[in-house]
TrEMBL record:
Family of the protein in this entry: Belongs to the iron-containing alcohol dehydrogenase family.
Molecular functions (GO terms): alcohol dehydrogenase (NAD+) activity; maleylacetate reductase activity; metal ion binding
Pfam families, per database record: ADH_Fe_C, Fe-ADH
Tagged with keyword Metal-binding: no
Record bears the keyword NAD: yes
Species for this entry: Streptomyces roseirectus
Protein name as annotated: Maleylacetate reductase
Amino acid sequence: MPGSRVVLRAGAALDAVPGEVERLGLERVLVVSGERGAPVAGEVARALGAVCVGVHAGARMHVPAEVAGRAVEVAESLRADGCVAVGGGSAIGLGKALALRTGLPLVAVPTTYSGSEMTPVWGLTEGGVKRTGRDLVVLPRAVVYDPSLTVGMPVGLSVVSGVNALAHAAEGLYAPGVSPLVALMAEEGVRAMVGALPDVAADPGDLAARGRALYGAWLCGAVLGATVMGLHHKLAHVLGGSFGLPHAETHTVLLPYVLAFNSPAAPGALERLGRALGDSRDPVGALWGWCGRLGAPRSLGELGLVEGDLGRAAELAVGTAYPNPREVTVDGVLGVLRGAFEGREPGVP
Ligand code: NAD
């Protein structure tokens, strides 16, 4: 498992990024972000001083190929020798696309709990189709987690982003060949996130709770980077890519239903999950209840899916091979999707 350097403390975006950039020997870095993250990216750029040659706030969800192409042009015209990506999975995704196409080293400053910063996985969308792949060149060389960048994240976004992280850990626990070390990281990641988010919801400005959530995101993201994901991530990819559903919200609604489906075939994973959730008897019910108490969205219908799409989504989800503890059939997936579409209490279909 390749490792990035990780710094996690309040204030680190401004006081640790320059040192990380210097350690990598970079002298001309381009800071990238999304539009909403531009003010924070500007602050990071100012902290970098003359080492920063520009800020490019062009990131968009799922990294459209033309957006990646524009960032490459900007980096080349400025003769950048590295990139600092500030933002959620979309901004980090743009930094990764830049690294993939140019080989420039990447430093990530995450502002959500997506976990992308800990993986060598890139994504690019062309003609409405999102391709993903693995390449170590896109793995950030350093990751700087700064809880103070997340205090303004609305509670709703914090919750769905946190469950996005939990999904990496949950599927990592039943991934083929998961090592004891990765299983420990997954369990600890879930425990940290599940403990932190209610405190974040009670007081979004609680820096200590925000730090614990980022710690959970770090561990869950590292699990994603070290394993291969199953049915849950496939369904989230299909619903986001082909039906335009929002990324983290879709993960949040789906997760309990996929875990209910997989639970008979993955008792060890569910046992660990139950330990982390503090309910060994009914981990799936515990997760579903916890999400509900935090006001998470409950149904795919609420997110904009229509009932007539369920069949096509199920077919797309079984169309390619990927590891999953329980055999994936169209009927099985339809059962998962129906439950998630209606938002009824998950049970084993
Ligand atoms: P995102 O980066 O699109 O951010 C979601 C929204 O939150 C945006 O509007 C953004 O401006 C806003 N935002 C970000 N940080 C904020 C903050 N601190 N305060 C307030 N608003 C903030 O979404 P995401 O969920 O972070 O990432 C999703 C994307 O990342 C998807 O494209 C997904 O496929 C990708 N992803 C990739 C990997 C990987 O390993 N390659 C892993 C996870 C996610």
